[in-house]
Amino acid sequence: MILISPAKKLNLKPIEVNLTFSEPVFIEKAKYLIKHLKNLNKVEVKNLLNVSDKLSLENFNRFQSFEIKKKLDNFKPAIYTFSGDTFVGLDVNNFSMSQILNAQRKIRILSGLYGILKPLDIIQPHRLEMGTKTDVIMKRSLYEFWGNLITEQINEEIKKNKFKFLLNLASDEYFKSINLNILKTEVYKIKFYFIDGKTSKNVGMYAKRLRGAMAGFFIKSKISDINELKQFSYNGFNYDSEDEKNKTLFFTKRK
Fold first, then answer.
1. pTM score over 0.90
2. Is residue 185 within 8 Å of 191, Cβ to Cβ?
3. SS3 216
């Protein structure tokens, strides 16, 4: 199983795909959060999300128009809605039908609002990062709100599908929602670096696109063993080494 982060950038254009969509497993919890968010005025939304006036108004309107009871025929699945760098790297528009179905089984998107999403889960436009300080609206953080629910759901799916490991391609902010003390599988991490002479440099924001590309490689190559990931190659980044003790694979690009 792969974990990735959501994106703040959204693509709301209609899509035409012949697929059966799914519903977020924690939709009722999301509705509970939305009820709190709907009570905020424009200034409170701006302060909560720490965004510009333009973005605060946009997200205030999204909270207010969020449908709780009606059918969601006008909305899209998560994997087609999120369009930030991770999803650019993932490049789902070039997936075959069988690859999309494989992604539905193996990829999970962590979410501040929905907890955890399958790629084909229908979602509504929103912005609520996992690290958002929601204490001011419900006296607890989103980490406290979700508690062990996300981890327990992952455990259930790992057992059901007999997955051998969890590949963490999410950011630290989102992966903090996982309780490693009760997680019932091994977790592997990926690190990307630029190599300049004898110096290694962090890839910064480009890491998001690389994580997405890694997730896409995982699905298209039908990875079942962690060592198969060492064949990953993207824009000059290739496998370099492994820290077996900390279950980390390093991929580098030399300048």
1. yes
2. no
3. helix
